Automatic annotation (TrEMBL):
<protein>
    <recommendedName>
        <fullName>N-acetyltransferase domain-containing protein</fullName>
    </recommendedName>
</protein>
<keyword id="KW-0808">Transferase</keyword>
<feature type="domain" description="N-acetyltransferase">
    <location>
        <begin position="4"/>
        <end position="151"/>
    </location>
</feature>
<dbReference type="InterPro" id="IPR000182">
    <property type="entry name" value="GNAT_dom"/>
</dbReference>
<keyword id="KW-0012">Acyltransferase</keyword>
<dbReference type="Pfam" id="PF13673">
    <property type="entry name" value="Acetyltransf_10"/>
</dbReference>
<dbReference type="InterPro" id="IPR050832">
    <property type="entry name" value="Bact_Acetyltransf"/>
</dbReference>
Amino acid sequence: MKDVSIQRLHRLDLKEIAPLAQESRDEGFRHITRMTDEYESGTNRFDQPGEALFAARDRERIIGICGLNQDPYSMTAGVGRVRRLYVSKSYRRHGVARSLMEQVILEANRHYSVLVLKTDHPIADRFYDSLGFISIGDDDNVSHMLRLDGRSGSRF
């Protein structure tokens, strides 16, 4: 996938992301639609301190997305949350999700001591484990956690 690049988005173009949102809905996933709804309403624009939104592009087309937020469920400072990771079906198994997550982890290292996420999908579970996340079994809001060392670029 030599033409795929990862870019930080400072503004989400809802028309541009619409095909990816539709594809995710067709697969039975609703999290990209929730992301666009929250973005449009202003509920979550990935623009608070320590937050970011990354897109994977094949030339000009967005083929993957992943965000980083301050964890809204944590009562402790220094916890970031991976949000809304999705890669177009035809681009899976080519390192796109890993590249998106590498950027999220690099950014999270600058702001947080812990990175968390929630998934109930077995393939995603194995993917996050492969990135060094630890499975958490007793939390309704967190399925995986990664301790960060605070040095940008230290993991990859």
